[in-house]
TrEMBL record:
<dbReference type="InterPro" id="IPR042070">
    <property type="entry name" value="PucR_C-HTH_sf"/>
</dbReference>
<dbReference type="InterPro" id="IPR025736">
    <property type="entry name" value="PucR_C-HTH_dom"/>
</dbReference>
<feature type="domain" description="CdaR GGDEF-like">
    <location>
        <begin position="176"/>
        <end position="280"/>
    </location>
</feature>
<protein>
    <submittedName>
        <fullName>PucR C-terminal helix-turn-helix domain-containing protein</fullName>
    </submittedName>
</protein>
<dbReference type="InterPro" id="IPR051448">
    <property type="entry name" value="CdaR-like_regulators"/>
</dbReference>
<feature type="domain" description="RsbT co-antagonist protein RsbRD N-terminal">
    <location>
        <begin position="24"/>
        <end position="157"/>
    </location>
</feature>
<feature type="domain" description="PucR C-terminal helix-turn-helix">
    <location>
        <begin position="330"/>
        <end position="386"/>
    </location>
</feature>
<dbReference type="Pfam" id="PF14361">
    <property type="entry name" value="RsbRD_N"/>
</dbReference>
<dbReference type="InterPro" id="IPR025751">
    <property type="entry name" value="RsbRD_N_dom"/>
</dbReference>
<dbReference type="Pfam" id="PF17853">
    <property type="entry name" value="GGDEF_2"/>
</dbReference>
<dbReference type="InterPro" id="IPR041522">
    <property type="entry name" value="CdaR_GGDEF"/>
</dbReference>
<comment type="similarity">
    <text>Belongs to the CdaR family.</text>
</comment>
<dbReference type="Pfam" id="PF13556">
    <property type="entry name" value="HTH_30"/>
</dbReference>
Length: 397
């Protein structure tokens, strides 16, 4: 009886050569496994099936060529895969899982094709396969992070351009404004306001302002200016915006100017200037938002600065000529008296003075200016002169 000669087990080189010859089928199998295991790949609308298959084919071919000793480690395919997944919205975790699935497929093919007859070299090959998967995964992850960082920078710059367009003159770039409205999902109709917040040490960042307002149901877009923040706020109804202004006064950290309300995004351009002007009219140290419609006299002053300076000199000239401390005490008293709607008792309480002190200082102002407080015309002139000095004097915008 003759004994059949034992068939020699395939060598690693032979197995890997056969696997390289069938890399098309392996790539198809890997694509199927990845899509089944990772929802990210199924959901990535920008990643086409052809792109995913080529990435699988490219990396399998490169890894098998290294394993069979015909090529050195070449990581171009891994880096390309990392960049592509970052640009097309596939998560880093899903990318790394795909490489692990590729390593498992290679290992399963090796064990299946060897028929279990080459256990020692298979064990050696296992370490080689998984070490190579780690090298390729690291290269892909590095490329992914670089691409993601670059994309984030580009997205941030694009967002800044859109925001600047939104708050600029709409007549200069209507197409850009339309793009910005779509990008920030600003509704075509609703209740809108523009607010301007003066910079201060406690002024929140644009992102922080947006986040805080979102907790009270207000959507917003913010830009950072040289001297503060400018923001567009919107909600389905005006009542929600009115309620949010109180929150804004608490968190803004500086004087807040508020535009007129408007109902469509087309009103943003005019509202930006209204909010800035309203902020300029805000009293020093006031935490309450100043509405554009609530300060007609201060608005007249800042719109006509030459006339405002003339009014301040003509009405308050003798007061302004006094030494700084005396001038400050008289003007502070005058401002408190107007704030108290002409009540000397309320003004005294506000200033923590005796009522007679307030009366003395008011009479002193009357002597210097020739304006009688009991005369409505004289009182109005004093108010305009005081507004002009406060808004146009040194230290104000």
């Amino acid at each position: 009886m003759s004994v059949s000669p034992e068939i020699a087990p395939p060598t690693p080189t032979e197995l890997l050569h056969d696997m390289r010859a069938s890399v098309d089928d392996l790539a198809d199998e890997l694509v199927a496994r990845i899509v089944a295991a990772e929802q990210d790949y199924a959901d990535a609308s920008l990643l086409t099936p052809e792109q995913l298959r080529f990435a699988c084919w490219d990396n399998l071919s490169s890894m098998l060529a290294n394993l069979d000793g015909t090529a050195p480690v070449r990581l171009e395919s891994a880096r390309a895969a990392g960049r592509m997944k970052a640009e097309q919205g596939v998560s880093l975790a899903a990318l790394l899982h795909a490489f692990r699935l590729g390593g498992r497929l290679i290992w399963e093919e090796l064990t299946a094709r060897s028929d279990g007859r080459a256990s020692q070299w298979l064990l050696d090959m296992a370490a080689q396969v998984w070490a190579l998967v780690d090298v390729y995964s690291d290269a892909a992850a590095d490329a992914y992070r670089e691409a993601a960082d670059r994309r984030a920078r580009e997205d941030a710059e694009s967002s800044r351009r859109l925001i600047r367009t939104l708050f600029a003159n709409h007549a200069l770039n209507p197409a850009g404004v339309a793009d910005a409205v779509r990008a920030f999902r600003i509704p075509e109709r609703g209740a809108f306001l523009v607010v301007s917040v003066r910079d201060s040490s406690s002024c929140l960042s644009a992102d922080a302002l947006r986040s805080r307002l979102s907790t009270v149901g207000i959507d917003s877009v913010w830009d950072t200016e040289v001297d503060g923040r400018i923001g567009l706020l919107w909600a389905p109804a005006e009542a929600a915006l009115d309620a949010a202004l109180g929150t804004l006064g608490e968190i803004g950290g500086g004087s807040v100017g508020v535009s007129r309300g408007f109902g469509r995004p087309g009103g943003i351009g005019a509202a930006v200037e209204q909010a800035r002007q309203a902020r300029r009219c805000a009293p020093d140290g006031s935490g309450d938002p100043t509405r554009y419609d609530s300060v007609p006299v201060p608005l007249l002053v800042i719109r006509q600065p030459d006339a405002g300076h003339l009014a301040a000199r003509q009405v308050l000239g003798p007061v302004l000529a006094l030494p700084a401390d005396e001038q400050r005490s008289l003007l502070t008293t005058l401002e408190a008296w107007f704030s108290a709607r002409g009540s000397t008792t309320a003004a005294a309480a506000q200033l923590h003075y005796h009522r007679n002190t307030v009366l003395y200082r008011l009479r002193r102002i009357q002597e210097l200016t020739g304006r009688d407080f009991s005369d409505p015309v004289h009182a109005a002139e004093l108010y305009v002169g005081l507004c002009a000095h406060r808004l146009l004097g040194a230290g104000r915008e």
